[in-house]
């Protein structure tokens, strides 16, 4: 990751540290929220938002900081709830005990709820963007994270467990469960920068390829990743009879599908590079493609 992205990430992490104020109710809720929000990870969604905005309008990157934080809160809440016994029943997340293992199930549920609602509060109270922009961001994030986006995709995923699924169903699951927030990251930057629709659609296509790349790589890491690096047991998808790109296509064809989406994403960046500095987005594309966890 190059120096400019490191600077963005450092500023973002400082913002996370200040995002959740100490409780006036004398509860452990904020401690639980912080535990998962500060647990690490690559912060790829906020970095994608901020890097896209930096490419489009470098002077406006501060306008994206709170939306990036809201996005990370939504993502974090989804991980807390995904790990619960009623869903994936995971004991580890990013190499650490999952939230409900540390704080108990009821507080983990409430922590996820609090992060979800805090995200919309943060966008609505952001005084760096106009009211019109904030309304669009709130609407888009609600759609990306709700029943037509991430939550809908997770529901379809849960309904599809322990039964054969088709490739179109798998693609539908992950375009919503995983891809919706990745797509939001890029589209939010286009809204903040207020760019022409044609350019926005081009960047959204790039984000859609990133979403598929992320998921195929995730499925491949479940086959050949290192448990100490990915922070959870390897082979859990196969053990749980879960439909993935690898179980449906085979490892070799999944690798081929991955390469095709990488090539298409690179082609979009190449076209954009005649007018914009796309280096940071290329770094993130490589991160999606070559990550080990």
UniProtKB/TrEMBL annotation:
Protein name: Farnesyl diphosphate synthase
Reactions catalysed, as given in the entry: isopentenyl diphosphate + (2E)-geranyl diphosphate = (2E,6E)-farnesyl diphosphate + diphosphate
GO molecular function per UniProt: (2E,6E)-farnesyl diphosphate synthase activity; metal ion binding
One matching Pfam family: polyprenyl_synt
Family: Belongs to the FPP/GGPP synthase family.
GO CC, one annotated term: cytoplasm
One record GO biological process: terpenoid biosynthetic process
Cofactor(s) for this UniProt protein: Mg(2+)
Lineage: Bacteria, Bacillati, Bacillota, Bacilli, Bacillales
Gene3D superfamilies linked to this entry: Farnesyl Diphosphate Synthase (1.10.600.10)
Keyword Magnesium: yes
Alphabetical UniProt keywords: Isoprene biosynthesis, Magnesium, Metal-binding, Transferase
Origin superkingdom: Bacteria
Source organism (scientific name): Staphylococcus felis
Enzyme Commission number(s) of this protein: 2.5.1.10
InterPro entries: Isoprenoid_synthase_dom_sf, Polyprenyl_synt, Polyprenyl_synt_CS, Prenyl_diphosphate_synthase
């Amino acid at each position: 990751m190059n120096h400019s992205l490191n600077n963005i990430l450092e500023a973002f992490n400082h913002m996370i540290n200040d995002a959740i104020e100490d409780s006036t109710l004398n509860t452990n809720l904020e401690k639980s929220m912080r535990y998962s929000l500060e647990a690490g990870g690559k912060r790829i969604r906020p970095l994608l938002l901020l890097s896209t905005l930096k490419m489009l309008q470098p002077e406006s990157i501060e306008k994206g900081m709170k939306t990036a934080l809201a996005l990370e809160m939504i993502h974090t809440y989804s991980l807390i709830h995904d790990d619960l016994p009623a869903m994936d029943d995971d004991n580890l997340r990013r190499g650490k005990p999952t939230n409900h293992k540390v704080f108990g199930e009821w507080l983990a549920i409430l922590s996820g709820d609090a992060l979800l609602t805090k995200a919309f509060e943060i966008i609505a109270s952001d005084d760096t963007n106009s009211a019109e922009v904030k309304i669009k961001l709130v609407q888009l994030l609600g759609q990306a994270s709700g029943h037509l986006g991430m939550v809908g995709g997770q529901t379809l995923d849960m309904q599809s467990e322990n039964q054969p699924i088709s490739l179109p169903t798998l693609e539908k699951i992950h375009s919503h469960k995983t891809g919706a927030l990745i797509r939001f990251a890029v589209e939010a930057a286009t809204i903040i920068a207020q760019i022409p629709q044609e350019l926005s659609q081009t960047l959204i296509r790039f984000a859609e390829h990133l979403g598929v790349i992320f998921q195929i790589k995730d499925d491949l890491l479940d086959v050949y990743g290192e448990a100490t690096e990915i922070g959870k047991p390897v082979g859990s998808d196969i053990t749980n009879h879960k439909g993935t790109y690898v179980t449906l296509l085979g490892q070799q064809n999944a690798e081929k599908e991955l390469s095709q989406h990488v090539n298409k994403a690179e082609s979009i960046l190449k076209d954009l590079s005649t007018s914009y500095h796309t280096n940071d987005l290329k770094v993130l594309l490589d991160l999606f493609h070559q990550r080990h966890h």
